[in-house]
């Protein structure tokens, strides 16, 4: 498949929401206006991959200081379009748009994919307000 990569526009939102729903990610489907605000916020680079019919088959959004560091907040590829190089091409398209020299990310489901890219592995944490850690 020859995907076309482009920056996010509001018309892409239903496709992005559908991808999030398919992944079981509740935040964007729960509030479309908030999702649009996130995807167009200051320091945010949001990109999509479109199929031959103009349908969204992948998206990513990154937060960046515009100089050194970008953080990959979300990346999803439709199950029907995986393992075709779309995620890699989407990141290659997004990177120069961020203005950053590197992309940092956290993953719990796509280690093999990210390990296939030039990288340095390090440990990281996510801290949520009100979350109470347990002694496990």
From TrEMBL:
InterPro entries in alphabetical order: Acyl_CoA_acyltransferase, GNAT_dom
Domain of life: Bacteria
Domain N-acetyltransferase, first and last residues per copy: 3-136
SUPFAM superfamilies in the cross-refs: Acyl-CoA N-acyltransferases (Nat)
GO molecular function, one term: acyltransferase activity, transferring groups other than amino-acyl groups
Record has Transferase as a keyword: yes
UniProt keyword annotations, A-Z: Transferase
Alphabetized CDD domains for the sequence: NAT_SF
Name used for this protein in its record: Acetyltransferase (GNAT) family protein
Species the sequence originates in: Kribbella voronezhensis
């Amino acid at each position: 498949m020859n995907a076309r990569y482009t920056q996010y526009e509001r018309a892409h939102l239903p496709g992005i929401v559908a991808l999030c729903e398919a992944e079981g990610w509740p935040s964007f489907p729960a509030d479309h206006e908030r999702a649009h605000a996130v995807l167009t916020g200051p320091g945010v680079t949001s990109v999509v991959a479109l199929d031959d019919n103009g349908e969204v088959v992948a998206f990513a959004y990154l937060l960046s200081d515009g100089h050194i560091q970008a953080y990959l907040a979300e990346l999803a590829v439709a199950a029907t379009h995986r393992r075709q190089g779309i995620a890699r091409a989407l990141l290659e398209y997004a990177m120069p748009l961020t203005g950053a020299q590197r992309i940092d990310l956290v993953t719990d489901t796509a280690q093999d994919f990210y390990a296939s890219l030039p990288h340095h592995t390090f440990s990281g944490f996510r801290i949520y307000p009100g979350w109470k850690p347990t002694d496990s």
